Structures are given as C-alpha cells and as structure tokens.
Amino acid sequence: MREHTLSIPTPERWGEGIVSVSKDRELELEVRLESVHEGILVSGTVDTVFEGECGRCLRDISEPLEVEFQELFEYSREEAADFEVQDDHVDLETLIRDATVLSLPFQPVCQPDCPGLDAVTGEPLAENAGEKPDPIDPRWAGLQEFAEQFGSAPAGADPRKEES
User: Long-range CB contacts (< 8 A, 24+ apart) of 122-130?
Assistant: First the structure.
C-alpha cells in the first residue's frame, strides 16, 4: 500500500453546466493505492473550488468541493475494463475528472434561501426586499387611469376594492 498527497492544476475546464472547475485550478489530492489480487485499488479524496452562477439570482458564486472516489484498476485481461493497469502505472485523470464533474451541483445556489429574480424587473429579490405594490390587472388599467384622471381614487388604489 502507498499513500500520496498531491497538489496539481486541472489540465482543462471540468464541467459544462452553470458551475465548473476552471482550468489551472488547484486540486488537492490524497490518494491511497493498494495492491489486491485483481489489480490496484485506488481510493482517496480531491479538494478543489468550483465557480459559476447561482441558479436562481445569477450572482457569481465560488464554493469549495470535496469529492471521495474509489476504483479498481484491473490487470490487463482479454476483456476490456474501464480502468486498467498499464505498464505498472495507473492514470488517475479520468477517474478524478469524472468523480469531480459528477459531484458538481446541478442547480447551485448562492445561499439556501435565495429568493431569485423579480419576474417583472429582473432584479435580484434579495436586493429589493421592500414593499412593492401589487401589479394592476391589465383588464382594470383603463378604469385605474379614469379614476386617477378625475381624482375619485388615490393613485395606486385598487379600483376593484370598495370602501365601506
């Protein structure tokens, strides 16, 4: 058995969704290699940081990511295997890339209770937490203009509501 701690940059951008691990981002690896009857059992963790946009409010986010992985690299046989020992070496890049990309969040958020964007203005709701008047139903807009013109209702009043 051998254990290694490595710090290597990503060779390319990993991930195609809203978030990804950028090229040359440092990967902190702790790897354990064990000789077993069928081949070499590789297990370990990778720590890195992913970057992208919040899936609700589109703010930039950057968060740490820790991924655990384990795979058996088989000695060459007549059957094709996903991971094989080649010339007494194992290539970990595919294993680490696949584990990292599959661990990226599908719908990342900047905070668990992110309210998202305002449907009308497109502004983040977290920034506009103040009271906003309810939008007037377009079917009542003509009556609203009439009421404002002749002063029978204060501006912004709902013409559907009767005063008692």
Answer: 124/57, 124/58, 124/59, 125/57, 126/57
**Whether the Cβ atoms of residue 50 and residue 104 lie closer than 8 Å to each other:** yes
DSSP 8-state secondary structure symbol assigned to residue 94: H
The mean of the pLDDT values for the chain is 83
State pTM to two decimals.
0.69
Taking 3-state DSSP, the helix, strand and coil percentages for the chain, each rounded to the nearest 5, stand at: 15, 35, 50
Q: Residues 93, 32: contact at Cβ < 8 Å?
A: no
Q: Which distant-in-sequence residues (6+ apart) come within 8 Å of 159 by Cβ?
A: 140, 143, 144, 147, 153
Bridge partners (DSSP) listed for residue 74: 39, 84
71 contact partners, CB below 8 Å, separation of at least 6: 41, 42, 43, 83, 95
